[in-house]
Design a protein that fits this description.
binds magnesium ion; about 35% helix; 10 strands; alpha/beta; globular; binds adenosine-5'-triphosphate; 8 helices; 4-stranded antiparallel β-sheet
């Protein structure tokens, strides 16, 4: 089953002179429960594509369908409802309010999205905080948390609405390797639950966890690698397979 579909998606920013096409006719199908990674050089359009796919931004041309619904045809109000209820985001930097506790940073937007003070919402948030190993610091301030704890809090916030797709733009870009592993374990466990993940990363170690990696060059999808179809051997791992594919694409 396809959960997300892009057809001839193009994006041109008219803020530049001359206006430059950043995405050029992207076609993409993402299956339900798939873990998709987008790679490519800096400036190739990865973030722009992620925002177009998630409804955070509108493509200049083309159609994006999420769970059968054309995102490009939504009104501003419908689009913001969709962003509140159907998709979750994690960015490289976690955007939290310094004057609220970790828990309140997640709970308050969740209550707003749910439109109710029902206790089930706060129970759900507490379960998420426990699950991702930050229950014990839930009442601490944001500034007391480490980088990986903040990213796990971002995952809790993204999951608080039960999204159909979890989008992540370089979620480990600011973390060291042990923190990266820790955050990727959390993201992989979300995928194991059956949530579709679409993630941008520069890190081949991180990308090796995906089912499929697509490669973007100058706004065009030029290649894809189905890692789920790669059989690991004693001498060759998925990471090796990905590395040689990346070199073939001049990464
Ligand atoms: N709001 C904007 N206005 C004008 N140009 C933009 C805007 N956002 C992105 N661009 C341009 O679009 C191109 C692609 O940017 P994008 O951020 O999608 O690349 P990226 O692949 O995510 O790069 P990075 O790996 O550095 O994050 C760049 O040339 C960038 O300058
Ligand atoms: Mg980017």
């Amino acid at each position: 089953m396809t959960v997300l579909q892009a057809r001839s998606v193009s994006k041109t920013f008219d803020t530049t002179d001359p206006p430059t096409p950043v995405l050029k006719g992207i076609d993409l199908d993402v299956a339900e429960a798939e873990f998709l990674v987008i790679m490519g050089a800096s400036g190739s359009g990865k973030s722009t594509l992620l925002y177009a796919l998630s409804g955070l931004d509108r493509p200049t041309e083309g159609i994006v369908t999420l769970a059968g619904r054309d995102l490009t045809g939504l009104s501003e109000k419908e689009a913001s409802q969709m962003r509140l209820h159907q998709v979750g985001f994690i960015f490289q930097q976690s955007y939290f309010l310094d004057n609220l506790s970790i828990r309140d940073n997640i709970l308050l937007p969740a209550l707003k999205a749910a439109g109710t003070k029902d206790r089930s919402v706060s129970r759900h948030i507490d379960d998420l905080l426990e699950r991702f190993g930050i229950g014990h610091i839930a009442n601490h301030g944001i500034t007391e948390a480490s980088g990986d704890q903040l990213q796990r809090a971002s995952i809790c916030r993204a999951l608080s609405v039960g999204p159909q797709v979890l989008f992540a733009d370089e979620p480990t870009g600011a973390l060291n390797s042990s923190m990266t592993e820790d955050v990727m374990d959390a993201i992989s466990s979300v995928h194991d639950d059956g949530t579709t993940i679409i993630m941008v990363t520069h890190d081949p170690v991180v990308a090796a966890r995906a089912d499929r990696v697509i490669y973007l060059r100058d706004g065009e999808l030029i290649d894809e690698l189905h890692l789920s179809r790669v059989t690991e051997t004693e001498t060759r791992s998925k990471e090796d397979e990905l590395q040689s594919w990346l070199s073939a694409n001049d990464f």
